[in-house]
């Protein structure tokens, strides 16, 4: 069934978030490196040149018929990751061949003594102390220059999309304290910390959580960055909380996730919970969040159909065409799966169709096109 559209992309997205009826499901795939591969551009060049990255994404957007919003207005670079994740990265063209995907280098860069430093000094002094450990090739005096360059790129890209009448779905990123510490300590050492020094971990989390939230709402430059440049949502990421036991989840993860979400909602910002890994056992927790004010984006590991069952009347669910399907499946496989998503998860609204996290760099273009086409033309609930 071909849908006669009666809503603008903004109206469609806002309605889905607010659990209201839509003319069809909004379509907002997440993609970046896929565009470089499709256009034959080495990843080293794609990462270095933000204008090029944006232009390639815009080319793919137009060639594939467009969708409701670009997920990000800008392409990610190494410095952008440092604003939230204290983890070394191996970069194409530096530690890696120029056309290989970057790699997060999981190793211990934060020590137990850093918890004491955090308790005494807070988030920003800690971030400044950690920066040389995770990005040793960037001199400390150049950090403000890189920060300003990243902000300028984000604004420039968002305005470029806006000039074409295209919404930017999400922008400034924030992560809960558990993500910051576990990535800086490494998952092994952080897991041991939860047994060896749990009270100190909690105290350090309590010390930094408000400043982390402020990074998104107020920003390092003192501006309301999450919505200042027209971003529809603010990116709130989580991956590692699901590695914890239920008792640990209740102590080290959920209180900080909930606090961040409530702060964003109170500030008039829609949190996009980009939550990779398997959150299925914890879906019921999300019913504690404000109804119709949050987007839960999942990545193929969480059972999206269970998420609909538990949360479909409470918050908007986003996803979830898995990476393996886009890479290894056929267009018919993709069409069948996307129709199932729309039939089940999209029933009654409160659903945004997207990729399961990022579109794979080596996804088949015909599969990506099939996902977008079905999302834009199939909506049986109008019958």
Summarize the model shown.
The protein has 383 residues and is of the alpha/beta class. The chain has one domain: Alpha-Beta Barrel (TIM Barrel).
What does it look like?
By secondary structure, the chain is α/β, with parallel strands linked by helices. It has a single domain (9-382), classed as Alpha-Beta Barrel (TIM Barrel). It is 49% helix and 11% strand. The protein has helices at residues 9-17, 33-38, 43-48, 50-63, 78-82, 113-121, 123-134, 143-163, 177-185, 187-196, 198-217, 225-228, 246-266, 304-311, 323-328, 331-345, 365-377; strands at 69-72, 89-90, 103-104, 167-174, 233-238, 271-275, 295-298, 316-321, 351-355. The strands form two sheets. Strands 1-4-5-6-7-8-9 form a seven-stranded parallel beta sheet, sandwiched between helices. Mean pLDDT is 91; it is low at 220-226.
Structural key phrases:
TIM Barrel, two-stranded antiparallel sheet, 17 helices, 49% helix, 11% strand, globular
Topology:
Elements: H1 9-17, H2 33-38, H3 43-48, H4 50-63, E1 69-72, H5 78-82, E2 89-90, E3 103-104, H6 113-121, H7 123-134, H8 143-163, E4 167-174, H9 177-185, H10 187-196, H11 198-217, H12 225-228, E5 233-238, H13 246-266, E6 271-275, E7 295-298, H14 304-311, E8 316-321, H15 323-328, H16 331-345, E9 351-355, H17 365-377
Parallel strand pairs: 1-4, 4-5, 5-6, 6-7, 7-8, 8-9
Antiparallel strand pairs: 2-3
């Amino acid at each position: 069934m071909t849908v006669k559209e009666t809503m603008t992309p903004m109206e469609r997205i806002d309605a889905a978030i607010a659990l209201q009826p839509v003319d069809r499901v909004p379509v907002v795939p997440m993609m970046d490196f896929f565009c470089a591969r499709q256009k034959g551009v080495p990843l080293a060049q794609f990462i270095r040149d933000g204008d090029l990255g944006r232009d390639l994404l815009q080319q793919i957007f137009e060639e594939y018929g467009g969708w409701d919003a670009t997920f990000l207005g800008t392409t990610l670079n190494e410095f952008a990751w440092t604003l939230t994740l204290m983890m070394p990265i191996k970069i194409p063209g530096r530690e890696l061949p120029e056309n290989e995907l970057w790699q997060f280098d999981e190793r211990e860069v934060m020590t137990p003594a850093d918890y004491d430093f955090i308790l005494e000094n807070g988030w920003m002094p800690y971030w400044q102390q950690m920066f040389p450990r995770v990005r040793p090739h960037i001199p400390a005096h150049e950090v403000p220059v890189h920060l300003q360059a990243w902000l300028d790129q984000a604004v420039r890209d968002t305005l470029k999309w806006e000039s074409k009448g295209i919404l930017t779905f999400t922008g400034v990123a924030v992560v809960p304290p558990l993500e910051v510490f576990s990535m800086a300590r490494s998952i092994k050492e952080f897991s041991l910390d939860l047994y060896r020094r749990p009270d100190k971990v909690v105290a350090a989390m309590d010390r930094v959580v408000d400043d982390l939230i402020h990074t998104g709402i107020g920003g390092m430059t003192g501006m309301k960055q999450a919505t200042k440049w027209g971003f529809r949502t603010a990116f709130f990421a989580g991956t590692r909380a699901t590695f914890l036991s239920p008792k640990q989840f209740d102590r080290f993860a959920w209180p900080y996730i909930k606090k961040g979400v409530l702060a964003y909602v109170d500030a008039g910002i829609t949190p996009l919970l980009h939550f990779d890994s398997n959150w299925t056992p914890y879906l019921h927790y999300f019913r504690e969040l404000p109804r119709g004010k949050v987007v839960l984006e999942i990545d193929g590991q969480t059972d999206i159909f269970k998420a609909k069952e538990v949360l479909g009347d409470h918050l908007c669910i986003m996803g979830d065409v898995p990476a393996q399907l886009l890479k290894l499946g056929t267009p018919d496989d993709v069409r069948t799966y996307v129709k199932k998503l729309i039939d089940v998860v999209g029933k009654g609204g409160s659903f945004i169709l997207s990729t399961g996290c990022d579109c794979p760099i080596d996804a088949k273009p015909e599969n990506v096109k099939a996902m977008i086409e079905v999302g834009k033309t199939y909506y049986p609930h109008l019958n």
